[in-house]
Amino acid sequence: xxxxxxxxxxxxxxxxxxxxxxxxxxxxxxxxxxxxxxxxxxxxxxxxxxxxxxxxxxxxxxxxxxxxxxxxxxxxxxxxxxxxxxxxxxxxxxxxxxxxxxxxxxxxxxxxxxxxxxxxxxxxxxxxxxxxxxxxxxxxxxxxxxxxxxxxxxxxxxxxxxxxxxxx
Length: 168
Ligand SMILES: Nc1ncnc2c1ncn2[C@@H]1O[C@H](COP(=O)(O)OP(=O)(O)OP(=O)(O)O)[C@@H](O)[C@H]1O
Ligand SMILES: [Mg+2]
Prior knowledge:
Elements: E1 10-14, H1 17-28, E2 36-41, H2 47-57, E3 72-76, E4 80-85, H3 94-98, H4 100-104, E5 109-113, E6 126-135, E7 138-146, H5 148-162
Parallel strand pairs: 2-5, 2-6, 4-5
Antiparallel strand pairs: 1-7, 3-4, 6-7
């Protein structure tokens, strides 16, 4: 399996839940309000673990769990964080009722699990985080930038995180 799919893509094998969280936490240092992370991956692939890592990196102290009765949890860390989980989304029309666009264009960082259900509604700039189940504790994590902001961000992130052969 090639380590890099495209020059602008980060393709990484995580060997543990902790490593997935750490990669998320490291990425968090580069995020700012208005940023959107689109998480894609099967049940149990590690999407929520990734969100927990990002939130830890943003100094969120409250518990980060997928919303159950609503589609969105809001946390306050360095910035507001909107944790959206669309697993239970009934249909595309429901995105309007819960106000997806208010979050996407709001004052915080938006992280969406099952984001492939609303791809057409995402802004021009966002980062796709793809998680693939390989083995029990092994996941493939692919970051794909969309738009100039995330192209640049990912370049910087890769340099800082992997240039010195350090493991995140
Ligand atoms: N390398 C890894 N990275 C992330 N999670 C891992 C890894 N190895 C094992 N796991 C386990 O996989 C599970 C991932 O659960 P998590 O809730 O994050 O998945 P999810 O993609 O959010 O699932 P769902 O679609 O049900 O919301 C956890 O039990 C975690 O301990
Ligand atoms: Mg989840």
